[in-house]
Amino acid sequence: METREEKLASWASPSVTSSHGLKVLKGSFSLNSNESRDCMRISQENIQFHQIESSLLNTPGDNMGKDIDPPYLWHFEAISFPRIRPGRLVLSVPKEIFQKIQESWNLHPRTIEVFLSNNGVLTTFKSFERVCFIIKVANSRTTGFDCVSVTHDLSRRTTYVLYHHLFNEDAVLNTLLSMPDRCVDPYFFIFAVYRSHHQHIEVYRNTIDDAIQGIERQTGFGNPGRLVQGYRPSMDEYPTLHDPKKITQQLGYCQTDLAIIGHVGRCCLDCGEWLVQAIDTGLVDEEDLPRRGTQSSSPGGQKLAQQFSDRLKTIRLMVRQDVEYTRRRAVMLLSQVQQMRDRTQSQTTYMLSVITQSDAEYTAAIAVDGKRDSIAMRTISILGIVYLPATFVATFFSIDMFNWGGTSGDEATSLSASPSIWIYWAVAVPLTVITILIWIFWSKRENQKSNKRIMIARVKAPKPDSTLTITKVEPAAPSEKMV
Asked: Which residues cross the membrane (predicted)?
């Protein structure tokens, strides 16, 4: 039954793949310790998609090492499909070609299901004549979508390897070519992907670390070594932050990348632990050792069988050491990711406090300006209160109460006041006093209302329960023992 991912999967079109090439590795090895150096052959070639069928028919054992006793000759063949199109549910192989490979190599039926997984899958399938390994790293645009399906066929004495969407195809193949004697062990093909994936995570971690160090230099906060005397004398001098919000945004990017690398790193660690456990199981499992077809009743045959069995065990132990080394580096990588996460959180807290302090200073400046404006408006209001009644009265009594003098014909007149001018003062002064008294009364009334609201709020506030009592526990005497 097809999974949801398999139903939504997009297979490569033959018209698209016709312009792309594939890399194929083939090799043959003798497990006879006396002949292994002379009978180790490995070749690499580039083929087109339409040549895959002929490559499947031309197995490594057909033209390599025919002069060697077949029971001691083991083969492998590996094909790598590059990432042609982006997308999570996109495959880089046409469906017809994959079906031919799966039928010829006896790949496990769950190969495509694992390849389309998003969170990473590590699994082993065993049968009487065959052992299958499928691995898919956790998807990430920064660390790749590496997949590998390995079938170790004991009846054919051949290991079939299908690589898919390798992030660094050359690094994986160069690992196989640099240590060809270990290609007889199927776990080594998985280790090549595991090692390459771990290196990509290391590069990703270095990129994030450089970004965090750059932020620490900008903020001047959290740089290591400030407590060492003489190392950084300017302990209290911090650079000016021109755009704290932009730095906070960069810290947000770092936190996102740290969350991704944390997940990918944990999956990498789980992959190493699974691979170590699988190798240990293979070392103690007699069915996993290629001794089929080498049993002989003669002492010489038994001796040769024991020799190549010991040789395979030696190679597998070397592969295990490489896997264990990479796994321990993954443990330290997760520790580094944790300290980077702590540094990022420290920088984020500092930047938020800087932004809060800056906003508080800006708010305080606004409050000072508002208070200054309030004082000015209050002064204007008081002046208005003082002069408004008189102005009103002057306007109301805008009649001729003064004679400013002048010339009227031949006679000169002087300044004179109207006998009714006392009416102006009799109205203006009391009206001004009444206005001021009204303002004072209104202010006191508003203050009383405000104080009353505060008192009501205090009365309604919950009080501590007075029924609660504190029991004092007396210490036990020195002679008493606690039971």
From this structure: 380-402, 422-442
Other C-beta atoms lying within 10 Å of the C-beta of residue 217: 10
Of the candidates 118, 123, 115, which has an alpha carbon nearest to the alpha carbon of residue 260? 118
Averaged confidence pLDDT in the chain = 79
Question: DSSP for 90-131?
Answer: B-SS-HHHHHHHHHHHT--TTHHHHHT-SS-EEEEEE-SSEE
Give the residue extent of every domain in the chain. Answer: 4-217+244-353
Q: Are 189 and 176 in contact (CB under 8 A)?
A: yes
H or E, element range at 151: strand 147-153
Report which secondary-structure segment, H or E, holds 416: strand 416-417
φ and ψ at 473, to 5 degrees? Answer: -95, 120
Q: Per DSSP, what are the bridge partners of residue 74?
A: 29
CA 421 vs CA 1, 175, 326, 394, 397: distances in Å = 111, 114, 108, 11, 10
Q: Which CATH superfamily is domain 4-217+244-353 in?
A: CorA soluble domain-like (3.30.460.20)
Backbone φ, ψ for residue 270 (5° rounding):
-60, -35
The CA-CA-CA angle for residues 196, 117, 132, to 5°, reads 70
Kindly report, residue by residue over 351-400, the tens digit of the pLDDT: 888 888 888 888 888 888 887 787 778 777 877 877 777 787 777 666 66
52 contacts: CB under 8 Å, gap ≥ 6: 22, 79, 97, 100, 101
In 3-state terms, what secondary structure has residue 144?
strand
